[in-house]
Design brief:
The complex is a heterodimer of chains A (228) and B (233).
Chain A lengths: L1 H5 L13 H15 L3 H22 L6 H15 L9 H24 L15 H4 L7 H19 L3 H12 L4 H8 L3 H39 L1
Helix pairs in contact in A: 2-3, 3-4, 3-5, 4-5, 5-9, 7-10, 8-10, 9-10
Chain B lengths: L9 H9 L1 H5 L5 H13 L1 H18 L8 H61 L14 E2 L2 E4 L9 E8 L5 E5 L5 H5 L1 H13 L1 E3 L1 E3 L2 E3 L1 E8 L3 E4 L1
Antiparallel strand pairs in B: 1-6, 2-5, 3-4, 3-8, 6-7, 8-9
Helix pairs in contact in B: 1-3, 3-4
Classes of the chains: A mainly alpha (228), B alpha+beta (233).
Chain lengths: 228, 233
């Protein structure tokens, strides 16, 4: 029994192993960037713009700022690539810059933007209705359910402590190893473990709270309909 | 674990849950994993909790990728292109600097260094001769101009309370001429007083003015009072 339970959840815990030639690819890309080869910039953007955007999008309090933050991240990467000594992998270095930029943006937001009211009804970068119905093979009900579930998770992530959120996003979404997360967040391995544990627990509590709130609202709605 | 009823204790549950993240992520030690697995086999609460966490983790992992906005993708490409162009220009500038160093600086470097060294040596040799001379105590002060001074008053008294005169002295300190300022109206009209003052002036001794230590002619304004004489060069 014990042996079978050891494998609890392990089927999705196994992360794709980082290929050895990935490091070679990294070092080649860094060398090309340092030598200012035009194609290297294209490769860098192709490799990192999507994950960095995803990361920043989920770390910021206001996802509408994600584009500005991502642009800042890549400007910093371009400017500082010459001083990159290769003590960490390119991925963790870029992620560290993204994380710091997200923190800076969040700090700036908390100082300046709290009082602002946006005129746009739809946040930039949010999926449009065309994208939502663009999968004809899927059941619309399932699609709506998934969409709602994803939105709940996104909201839940936004409601937890930023440090915990960063750890959970880096681990569960970006699939970084604990060591890589420690490098990105510049904390010890123990702190990473603690933040992931507490982040997941906090997210679980937030989602449970939301679920309870929703079920209460559903019951209230049902009662109102019954009275009518 | 409680040995009596084989039910897990709260401490064991807390210990298992504190390692649940590492357990799920396969980063805990083999011993810890076995311990947690053993605990899970006897604790339905922790199993349910871990099941929820696995489900949550899977749901978070399944969150869709947010598509990079087209504007952002274009902006990033533009930024990359600008940075590439700037760096290329910098590199070209470095090349130009290298060429300038090789073609212009290198041929003149040796003569220029020789010239600088020679100039330095010459300056070091000549510097002591350019220093100002040290003066002995009895030397005249090395200032630009020293005005004349009254050294000896005449033997006769002056019969007035207050009179001012402008004197012209030669380089021996002798009075050559004098004039009366317009303000001295009494002196202009009193001939006796003028004679008295002229007698006095004849016997006064002056130290001549000096220019770089050499005696020279000069002007002097003196004010004679009954009790004292004021001299202004």
């Amino acid at each position: 029994m014990a042996d079978s339970i050891i494998g609890f959840g392990y089927e999705d815990a196994a992360l794709p192993a980082r290929p050895a030639d990935c490091y070679e690819e990294d070092s080649r890309l860094i060398a090309e960037l340092k030598a200012n080869q035009e194609s290297a910039y294209e490769v860098l953007l192709a490799r990192f713009q999507q994950p960095v955007y995803n990361l920043v999008y989920r770390l910021l309090a206001d996802p509408a700022d994600a584009s500005d933050a991502v642009q800042e991240v890549f400007l910093k990467v371009f400017r500082n690539i010459e001083s990159f000594r290769g003590q960490s992998s390119l991925k963790t270095w870029v992620y560290r810059i993204a994380l710091n930029e997200a923190y800076n943006h969040r700090r700036w937001f908390s100082r300046h933007r709290k009082q602002e009211v946006g005129l746009e009804t739809e946040e930039e970068g949010c999926r449009s209705w065309i994208e939502s119905i663009s999968d004809p093979a899927r059941d619309p009900y399932e699609l709506a359910l998934n969409e709602e579930r994803h939105q709940l998770i996104e909201d839940g992530l936004r409601n937890i402590n930023p440090d915990f959120r960063a750890a959970v996003v880096l681990r569960d979404l970006e699939e970084l190893s604990y060591e890589e997360i420690a490098e990105v967040m510049q904390v010890s391995l123990g702190t990473v473990k603690s933040r992931i544990l507490r982040g997941r627990e906090a997210l679980r509590r937030v989602l449970l709270g939301q679920a309870e709130q929703r079920s209460t609202q559903t019951i209230l709605g049902w009662m109102q309909e019954t009275v009518k | 674990m409680n040995s009596n009823d084989n039910r897990p204790t709260r401490t064991e549950c807390m210990a298992a849950r504190s390692h649940s993240a590492e357990y799920l992520d396969r980063t805990c030690t083999e011993a810890n994993a076995r311990e947690i697995a053993r605990h899970l086999s006897t604790c339905p609460d922790c199993t349910a909790h871990l099941g929820e966490t696995v489900h949550l983790r899977r749901t978070v992992h399944a969150l869709p990728q947010r598509a990079v906005p087209v504007n952002l993708a274009v902006s990033l490409r533009v930024a990359a292109s600008k940075h590439y162009a700037n760096r290329a220009a910098q590199l070209r500038w470095r090349d130009r600097l290298y060429l300038w160093n090789t073609n212009i600086w290198r041929p003149i470097a040796l003569p220029m260094c020789g010239g600088l060294a020679t100039a330095f040596v010459l300056f070091a040799v000549l510097l002591p001769t350019l220093a100002p001379p040290v003066l002995a105590n009895d030397d005249p002060p090395p200032s630009w101009y020293q005005s004349a001074e009254l050294s000896d008053l005449g033997p006769f008294g002056v019969r007035t309370d207050h009179v001012t005169l402008d004197l012209i002295l030669d380089d021996q300190g002798r009075m050559v001429d004098y004039s009366i300022p317009a303000s001295e109206t009494a002196l202009l009209h009193d001939l006796k007083l003028r004679r008295n003052i002229e007698h006095n002036l004849l016997f006064m001794r002056f130290k001549p003015a000096e220019f770089f230590g050499q005696p020279t002619s000069g002007k002097l304004r003196i004010t004679i009072r009954r009790s004292q004489v004021e001299v202004k060069g």
